[in-house]
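Students often ask why we bother encoding 3D structure as a string. The short answer is that it lets us treat folding as translation between two languages. Here is a chain of 355 residues written in the first language.
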Amino acid sequence: MTKTVCLKIPKAYGEKAITLTKKLDIFNSDLMIQRIEDYLCIPLISKPIPANIKEFKKAFTTFEISVQEFPTKVKRPTKIIDVLEDKLPPHLLASLPHAIDFIGDIAIVELPSELASHKTLIGEAILETNKRLKTVLAKSGAVEGIFRIRKFEVIAGQSKTETIHKEHGCVYHVDVAKAYFSPRLSTEHNRVASQVNEGETIVDMFTGVGAFSILIAKRHENVKAYAIDVNPEAIRYLEKNIVANRVQEKVIPILGDIREVVKKQLVGVADRVIMNLPEKAIEYVDVACDALKFEGGIMHYYEFARAPNPLETAKVRLTEAVKKANRTIEKVLSAKTVRATAPFEWQVVVDAQIQ
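And here it is in the second language, the structure alphabet:
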């Protein structure tokens, strides 16, 4: 307990008093606010000066400056190394993961083999440093299969893989073990959505739970997005997300193989296609070209590319693939790295105007 000067105020003025003391730079954030019957005692870092008292008189009809004892706030550590520095040897501290994915109230971490026996300790440290988390998952396999999912192991917290993630004003229901979703693409989702014009039709070829399509639909009044995935679980969550974000009239979920879906119902409909399947998108450039309107449109093409010239490599590969599909690239609008995926390897995106 710490004894200090405080502002005693009727609780009805509580929020206003906290805001004012912070504005005056006299609020003591190291101590906990106390409630005494119908009053709040707000700890101050020093005795208020006359100018502070004048501000209090303007704001409140009644208040009192007194001295009270306050419990000290328990400060939550902000880094896992702060929690583990006395629990792991130095050579293992150096191996602690720096990149953690946060999806809703779930954290996902990749642990090197030397830390495997300490996974529970590390998971608990991650929970301790992130108040909103309920579960920590460790990757236990690579992304694989046509559904682009991986296996996880619960190493701390609740045993679950389903959560609700919020991004750019959208709400996404997702089960990370059943459907693809990457929070590392948040900036990319926003970048693409900001380029869409009113009146466009979009074909989101590998939609997952709908992060591109739903954000586009939320941002624009007059758009139509066909969101396609071969994974039934991804489409099930997509349908929940469409309702949750109130974009039922603008996002059309379709379950099926993209090649068959485009062939049967989406030839020549798109002003814009999104190809977020970097490991295999090159194999579907012809499908994207078929989906684009005859007069052309924009393609957002993703792939994994390696050093020394990942962007040039991606542009050359895309140009050749578009040519084989009997189309041409009128202009490369942009080419950029999205994120590092391995040593000397990046996920890249090429935005191209297709004729």
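Translate back mentally: The chain has eleven helices and 17 strands. Keep this in mind for the problem set.
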